[in-house]
């Protein structure tokens, strides 16, 4: 593979379409593959034929998965013919789809849903004529709902995009309900004119074995492109999701263009937000949020909203937005259950008939510290020392931010100092002046609970959780304030970290200095040494243990995934613990 070709998980370029469909039917027992053709058909096609219902067939080029084969199933398509990537299926393939359903029965009613591309119209058109020669009643519903073009005077007309899936769903539902051939043809030709779609991409796609179909600069987006990577109407600078959706919707509804869709206050619509292939679910849901917000700000009622991968363009990073005008009848067709594995129904609560703007569920706040009024308070002089200890520890962590980040480079994160620094800044911000502290420095129990809440909220991730566990575990032993309770608090905090974090002494983590500190305090617990002296001994033991992590093999945390030869410095989390313990000891 040359350097300008993109990587794909395929076997052979010219067999990927067939093998993809083999995988599709392998995981969906309700589908079958026609021998010798890239045609997917309902497994229960013979039974469906016996019910004299209208047959709905679609198809197109591969590379748009799940469209169109993914929509084969009860309540949607009867069969789908697949061409090569981005190429219309040949007439023989389409005829194979017809024959797979009709077998030798003459006079079948067949509706073909075709996207408005020249190749699709020609090849499906040939198949239509051949099917008529065989005695079938056939009509082609050509879908072209693209709203990007300014004019269709000198073009092939509006392209068929993701809105085609709405027609699949409505046609399949009507057929399942036993609607007549003529009724379906008339209705579908009316419905297809009541929708519009516009696309936007951030990066191109590439046909298997080839280079990307076009290029975009890192700060560019393409507005109004087609599903085969063909150019859009213009390139714009990268925008936020909110701005991008507004740009798309404003163009789609611009009355100055001949391809716009009219959307007025009071209209009822169905919204489909489609992934063009390479857009993350996070982004897709965010776009759906913005599209719903845009329409509702215009006074439009969104009766149904759908979001997911419906008609893609291989790995293209981008989205399309489709708006379909609906009434109760259209909604009924959209809601009719289908066995198609790729249709994503719009979830409604039991008994709910229309989509509603979601309300916010109110829950009791978890930010209230559960105070224990029996917890022992400190005298003013001791509380002042605690204030200084807290401030000193936080200032030390801020002072070491770059050093800790540098140590963390060895495990690939490079953020230990920044994470702990964020927690330290938040604590200092809430600490208040020494003359009137805002944190409860006179009550060790409440202070520990408060510090646990601050660290878990501000620091987040593993570090925030570990420190929250430490402070919350320690708090239970601080309801009494003496030398023994401080040692017990450190021990309980350590046990909480070990229980939920999984690390043990010797694993090259923050547990090592904490464990050393606890052990050293246990050795002098019954001595006459002061709290300050005890803490000094504990801090010295912690510093040695932190330095010793340089020689340990990492057995927990992200560092455990790093090659041992790269871990040639002390663990940053361990160094941080030793540093703030030393700062506390010095302050006391």
TrEMBL record:
Residues 12-343 form the DhaK domain. The keyword Coiled coil does not apply. Keywords: ATP-binding, Cobalt, Kinase, Nucleotide-binding, Transferase. One of its GO terms (molecular function) is glycerone kinase activity. Its EC number is 2.7.1.28, 2.7.1.29, 4.6.1.15. GO terms for cellular component: cytosol. It catalyses: FAD = riboflavin cyclic-4',5'-phosphate + AMP + H(+); dihydroxyacetone + ATP = dihydroxyacetone phosphate + ADP + H(+); D-glyceraldehyde + ATP = D-glyceraldehyde 3-phosphate + ADP + H(+). Catalyzes both the phosphorylation of dihydroxyacetone and of glyceraldehyde, and the splitting of ribonucleoside diphosphate-X compounds among which FAD is the best substrate. Represses IFIH1-mediated cellular antiviral response. Substrate binds at residues 61-64, 120. Belongs to the dihydroxyacetone kinase (DAK) family. GO terms for biological process: glycerol catabolic process. Residues 384-586 form the DhaL domain. This is Triokinase/FMN cyclase. The active site is at 228 (tele-hemiaminal-histidine intermediate). Homodimer. Interacts with IFIH1 (via the CARD domains), the interaction is inhibited by viral infection. SMART domains: Dak2 (SM01120). It comes from Elysia crispata (lettuce slug). NCBIfam families: dak_ATP (TIGR02361). It comes from the Eukaryota. The lineage of its organism: Eukaryota, Metazoa, Spiralia, Lophotrochozoa, Mollusca. Pfam families: Dak1 (PF02733), Dak2 (PF02734).
């Amino acid at each position: 593979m040359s350097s300008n070709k993109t990587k794909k998980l395929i076997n052979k370029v010219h067999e990927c379409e067939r093998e993809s469909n083999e995988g599709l039917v392998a995981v969906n027992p309700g589908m079958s593959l026609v021998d010798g053709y890239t045609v997917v058909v309902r497994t229960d096609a013979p039974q469906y034929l016996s019910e004299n219902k209208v047959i709905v067939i679609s198809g197109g080029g591969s590379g748009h998965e799940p469209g169109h084969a993914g929509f084969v199933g009860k309540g949607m398509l009867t069969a789908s013919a697949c061409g090569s990537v981005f190429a219309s299926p040949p007439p023989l393939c389409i005829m194979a789809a017809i024959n797979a359903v009709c077998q030798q029965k003459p006079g079948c009613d067949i509706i073909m849903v075709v996207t408005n591309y020249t190749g699709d119209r020609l090849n499906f058109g040939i198949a239509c004529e051949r099917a008529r020669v065989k005695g079938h009643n056939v009509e082609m519903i050509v879908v072209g709902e693209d709203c990007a073009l300014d004019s269709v005077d000198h073009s092939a007309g509006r392209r068929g995009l993701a809105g085609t899936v709405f027609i699949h769903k409505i046609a399949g539902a009507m057929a399942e309900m036993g609607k007549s051939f003529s009724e379906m043809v008339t209705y579908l030709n009316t419905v297809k004119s009541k929708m519009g779609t516009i696309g936007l991409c951030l990066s191109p796609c590439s046909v298997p074995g080839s280079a990307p179909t076009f290029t975009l600069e890192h700060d560019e987006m393409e507005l109004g492109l087609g599903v085969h990577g063909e150019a859009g109407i213009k390139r714009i600078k990268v925008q936020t999701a909110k701005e991008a959706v507004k740009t798309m919707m404003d163009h789609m509804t611009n009355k100055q263009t001949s391809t716009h869709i009219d959307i007025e206050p009071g209209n009822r619509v169905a919204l489909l937000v489609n992934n063009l292939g390479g857009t993350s679910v996070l982004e897709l849901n965010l776009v759906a949020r913005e599209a719903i917000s845009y329409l509702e700000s215009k006074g439009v009622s969104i009766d149904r909203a759908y979001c997911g991968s419906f008609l893609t363009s291989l790995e293209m990073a981008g989205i399309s937005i489709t708006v379909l005008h609906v009434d109760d009848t259209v909604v009924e067709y959209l809601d009719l259950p289908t066995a198609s594995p790729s249709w994503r129904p719009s979830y409604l609560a039991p008994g709910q008939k229309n989509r509603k703007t979601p309300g916010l569920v109110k829950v009791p706040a978890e930010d209230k510290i559960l105070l224990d009024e029996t917890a022992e308070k400190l005298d003013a002089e001791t509380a002042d020392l605690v204030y200084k200890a807290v401030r000193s520890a936080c200032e030390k962590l801020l002072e070491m931010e770059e050093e800790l980040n540098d140590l963390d480079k060895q495990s690939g994160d490079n953020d230990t100092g920044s994470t702990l620094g964020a927690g330290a800044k938040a604590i200092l911000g809430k600490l208040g002046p020494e003359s009137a502290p805002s944190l409860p420095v006179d009550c060790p129990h409440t202070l520990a609970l408060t510090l646990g809440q601050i660290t878990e909220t501000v620091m987040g991730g593993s570090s925030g959780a570990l420190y929250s566990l430490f402070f919350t575990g320690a708090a239970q032993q601080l309801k009494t304030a003496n030398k023994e309770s401080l040692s017990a608090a450190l021990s309980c905090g350590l046990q909480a970290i070990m229980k939920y974090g999984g690390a043990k002494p010797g694993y090259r983590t923050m547990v090592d200095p904490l464990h050393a500190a606890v052990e050293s305090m246990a050795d002098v617990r019954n001595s006459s040494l002061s709290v300050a002296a005890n803490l000094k001994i504990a801090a010295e033991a912690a510093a040695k243990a932190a330095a010793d992590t340089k020689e340990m093999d990492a057995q927990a945390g992200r560092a455990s995934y790093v090659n041992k030869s790269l871990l040639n410095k002390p663990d940053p989390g361990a160094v941080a613990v030793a540093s703030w313990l030393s700062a506390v000891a010095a302050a006391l």
